[in-house]
Amino acid sequence: MPKIFTLGLNESIDDSANLGTKELYNLVGQNTGNLAFHYAINRLIDFVPCSTPWGSQTEKINIMGDIGIIPCANQLGSHVDMKGLAQNLKGVKANLVAIGLGAQGAVGLDGIPEIPLGTLEWLDQVVTHAASDKPNITVRGDFTLKVLEHYGFGGKALSLGCPSLLINKSKDLGERLEQRYKGPYRKVAIAAGHPNWTSMSALEASLVRLMMDTQGTYIVQNTDESVALSRNDFAYVDAKYKEKLRNYLKLNLDDRQFDDWIRQYMISFYDIPAWMEYLRRFDFIVGSRIHGVMLAIQAGVPGLCIAHDSRIREICEKCQIPFVMAHQLKEGVTLKDIRDLVKFDGKAFDRNREAIAAQYQEFFSNNGLM
Predict the structure, then answer these.
(1) For 41-82, how does the pLDDT look when each residue is reduced to its tens digit (9 = 90+)?
(2) How many whole angstroms separate alpha carbon 113 and alpha carbon 308?
(3) Which residues contact 196 (CB under 8 A, 6 or more apart)?
(4) What global pTM score does this model have?
(5) Quick count: other Cβ atoms within 10 Å of Cβ 121?
(6) Helix (H) or strand (E) holding 227
(7) Domains, the chain, with CATH or none
């Protein structure tokens, strides 16, 4: 049997409570949602492989094994140049499989982003290391596939959404969710946004009010400062960031009151089963973090994703996750608005999951992973 390894992260941080925030934040790849992605892949291949970071040198990668799984993010766009990583892959002996690659584009999904030459070289290295002439890349949605086709890599990739769609193995997950979407939303959690997304401030503030009214919680995935606050590491965060966050959330609180608010509502997770178990306490999850919403749905809890760019929109479309575009709600949202916005067909959701699961199985088989 070939030895399989991950060129990426571990799926959980077992000793998180004893780590400093900076180290912990780096171990989750600077967004705790990355753990959901890795966890999902490992459930699909049915074991947890050893891992080495993306930036590992060729010599390190070559001692890891025969097939390397590369869990990806939104690396396709002008915002990142993968030249250094491309160089590391040139002498790699293992076959490579890239999963969940995404393109960073405009909200409308019309324009093709400009991809740096170094990233195109990285893509060329990935496809060069395929186990066969079959595709060895999956992408998050049809927009990213369109981008790869534009740059000549279309025949090397499949549009399969996010593997986190398949964490829950129930065949009737969608039908059961549809019933819960019709039920009362008495306790609501927020998949927290980013304080740099200032255009979404009024919307995020309305979600916070909704969360407080239902005695919910505010689940953060990044930044490092927000993660620090969520784990009571106030010494890590300066007053300027706290003021930025308070303004973003439009909270009329003094310093002491804001500290108390943080300790009451903000939380983060470093283990996916624990995260999903916690989400079961709620009736609804809403926010701009796709993996925060996806984990709720996989736990059987209804959710709504607020999409603000192409990468979120295309995942939601491919995985049939209920979503609404952020610009449609820029003045804010109420609980009644949310109920009116959600359109969910449980049977269609289940059929889509079944089809994607079959495609993943064939993809893994073609690449020696099953």
Answers:
(1) 999 999 999 999 998 999 999 999 999 999 998 899 988 999
(2) 16
(3) none
(4) 0.95
(5) 18
(6) helix 224-230
(7) 4-166+354-366 (3.40.50), 173-346 (3.40.50)
